[in-house]
Task: inverse folding
């Protein structure tokens, strides 16, 4: 007898349908536990065993497989236990069984061994990852929507125990909500030629093709940003975010993989966190916090027990996190934008300043955090610090131009808030500290010294003087940029209008700033959020993300508050007392700094087109073949995209500066007349 479930629109099978299914090689431990949709027909179910509670939808479509093969949707050669199968799904050749799964519409499951949920599972949520310090103490529980910023706070603010405990409780509460004894395969997903999938949850449009084993994890794919898991991949205790690809025999254990990441070419990662747009090929990661745009492409590269972001790791880069005494307890930090050259080595603990280059092998514990944009070079077992030199490098500018263009995230819900600014209160504050330290070193040791010693590092006299000069230029460039942005397109009748325009919109922003793995903000504003968590005013992960989003959106308001305060200190006059002459002076300083720095970049770019760089071109030619071959491959200097950007920038900024100066001169003349 047939009955209809009015709530779910599923019914029991008709006797004749049961008969047809048996004729087609199907069986069930209890046909009364098999329910079907109203429009169900049994034609496309063959050689299938059912056990437990089963719900089947209708199968009247077709699927195109690789090689031009068309398959009718349905269930063929499978054993299903406690499963619900969505409309027009295809399940074909399950060597073992599928147990405890809700399979969405238009899903294709072809040639797999086992897909099962065993008991209750949180699908990777709540797994503790021992990031940054391999010896423990900075472990964080991962969850579906973990951001780099929340992970940063949980990992590094261990001195605020109540804060960390509050965040961990939120994660535990979330893990409890997602805990289930039934897994989900999202609509439109494809699971092909795969062995074992145990306690796995996938979002819509997931593609798993050729994976060997996936255990205890969530694949948070969606139609906007599908996830691909490829051939030979083995993953255990993981969460993969939207838009990521993990392929070619990559090994992952106890990891969170953020949005738009790409792990490929036999990469190996354990106890690590990867956030937006990270790339890992060939090499190895162990207990790392890979903030946005951490990139390592080389087989011999090991990143271990460190925190990175916007990193480009050279081949053979390595770090040591123990000295065979108390075990692997040491850790290191490379601030945003750092690079390592081939065969570079750092002995942890060390801390490398933002946008710095590490070259050679460093056996002392280096701390260059107050010297951003520097080189750290090894020579005769000495660590040589070259302050600020990276401000002259065209490569640094090219990096900042390419990062926004390489944002592969297509999900409308972005987990990580990324500030791409090269110059910000975060880096300028460090430059100001670095500049003061360089001046103090010179005054203490005398300006006639050939070199200076600073914290186990050596600074050459010429490098010190150049560092002071470059930091000064960069500080004026940033402060002038901020001031001009406030005055640009303004209509002023008198100097009081100018002063009014220069008044900050927000009282928040003065003092210390931080980079919480991509999100740059004032410590004062961040601390209010942290206190709200500690005091119980913020109690959910959604509230935490919302508060961080507000920080990110208000960056430029906060930035001007900081810049106005620092401008008063650096220029020596409160902006509330600025005259037109003061504005003109600041803009002149800005214009000079911008143009001088752009000239440095232009000359640095020109080196890439020198005769020495043509070595190996025009191999078998004569009479200008080398130059012509070089031009065909590399293009002409004047037409290079980066060079054109510099030239246009110089013209645009000079014009803008002259406009502001002219405007101030007009105001000044009017005030003199009146």
Result:
């Amino acid at each position: 007898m047939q009955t209809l479930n009015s709530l779910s629109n599923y019914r029991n099978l008709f006797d004749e349908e049961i008969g047809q299914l048996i004729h087609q090689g199907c069986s069930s431990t209890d046909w009364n536990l098999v329910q079907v949709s109203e429009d169900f027909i049994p034609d496309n179910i063959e050689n299938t065993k059912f056990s437990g509670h089963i719900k089947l939808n209708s199968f009247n479509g077709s699927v195109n497989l690789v090689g031009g093969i068309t398959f009718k949707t349905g269930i063929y050669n499978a054993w299903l236990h406690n499963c619900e199968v969505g409309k027009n799904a295809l399940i074909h050749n399950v060597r073992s069984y599928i147990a405890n799964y809700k399979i969405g519409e238009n899903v294709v499951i072809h040639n797999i061994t086992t897909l099962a949920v065993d008991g209750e599972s949180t699908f990777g949520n709540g797994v503790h990852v021992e990031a940054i310090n391999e010896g423990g103490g900075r472990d964080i529980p991962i969850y579906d929507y973990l951001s780099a910023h929340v992970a940063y706070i949980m990992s590094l603010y261990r001195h605020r125990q109540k804060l960390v405990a509050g965040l961990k409780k939120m994660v535990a509460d979330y893990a409890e909500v997602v805990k289930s004894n039934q897994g989900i395969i999202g609509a439109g997903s494809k699971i092909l030629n795969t062995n074992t999938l145990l306690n796995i949850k996938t979002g819509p449009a997931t593609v798993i093709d050729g994976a060997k084993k996936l255990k205890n994890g969530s694949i948070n794919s969606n139609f906007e940003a599908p996830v691909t898991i490829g051939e030979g991949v083995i993953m255990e205790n993981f969460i993969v975010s939207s838009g990521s690809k993990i392929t070619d025999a990559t090994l992952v254990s106890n990891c969170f993989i953020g949005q738009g990441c790409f792990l490929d070419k036999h990469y190996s990662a354990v106890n690590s966190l990867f956030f937006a747009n990270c790339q890992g090929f060939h090499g190895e990661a162990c207990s790392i916090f890979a903030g946005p745009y951490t990139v390592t492409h080389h087989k011999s590269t090991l990143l271990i027990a460190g925190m990175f972001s916007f990193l480009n790791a050279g081949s053979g880069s390595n770090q040591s996190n123990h000295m065979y005494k108390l075990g692997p307890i040491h850790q290191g930090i490379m601030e945003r934008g750092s690079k390592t050259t081939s065969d570079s080595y750092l002995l942890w603990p060390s801390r490398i300043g933002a946008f710095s280059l590490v070259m050679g092998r460093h056996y002392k514990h280096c701390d260059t955090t107050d010297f951003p944009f520097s080189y750290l070079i090894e020579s005769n077992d000495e660590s040589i610090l070259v302050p600020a030199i990276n401000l002259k490098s065209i490569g640094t500018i090219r990096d900042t131009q390419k990062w926004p263009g390489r944002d592969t995230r297509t999900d409308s819900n972005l987990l990580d808030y990324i500030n791409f600014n090269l110059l910000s209160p975060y880096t300028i504050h460090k430059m100001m500290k670095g500049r003061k330290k360089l001046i103090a070193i010179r005054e203490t040791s005398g300006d006639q010294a050939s070199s200076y010693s600073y914290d186990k590092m050596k600074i050459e006299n010429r490098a010190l003087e150049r560092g002071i000069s470059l930091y000064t230029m960069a500080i004026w460039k940033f402060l002038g940029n901020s001031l001009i942005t406030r005055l640009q397109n303004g209509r002023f009748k008198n100097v009081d209008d100018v002063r009014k325009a220069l008044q900050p919109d927000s009282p928040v922003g003065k003092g210390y700033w931080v980079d919480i793995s991509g999100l740059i903000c004032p410590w004062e504003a961040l601390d209010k959020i942290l206190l709200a968590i500690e005091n119980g005013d913020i109690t959910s992960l959604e509230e935490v993300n919302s508060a961080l989003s507000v920080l990110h959106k208000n960056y430029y308001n906060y930035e001007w508050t900081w810049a106005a305060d620092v401008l008063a200190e650096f220029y020596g006059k409160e902006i509330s007392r600025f005259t037109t002459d003061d504005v003109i002076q600041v803009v002149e300083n800005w214009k000079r700094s911008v143009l001088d720095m752009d000239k440095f970049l232009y000359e640095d770019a020109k080196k890439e087109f020198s005769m020495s760089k043509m070595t190996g071109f025009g191999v078998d030619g004569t009479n200008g073949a080398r130059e012509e071959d070089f031009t065909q491959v590399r293009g002409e200097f004047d037409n290079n995209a980066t060079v054109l950007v510099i030239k246009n920038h110089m013209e645009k900024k000079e014009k803008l500066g002259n406009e502001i100066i002219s405007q101030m001169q007009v105001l000044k003349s009017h005030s003199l007349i009146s």
User: Anything to note?
Assistant: The chain is about 30% helix and 30% strand. Residues 294-405+423-427+435-464 form one domain. Residues 444 and 572 are 25 Å apart (CA to CA). Confidence is low (pLDDT under 50) at residues 1-7.
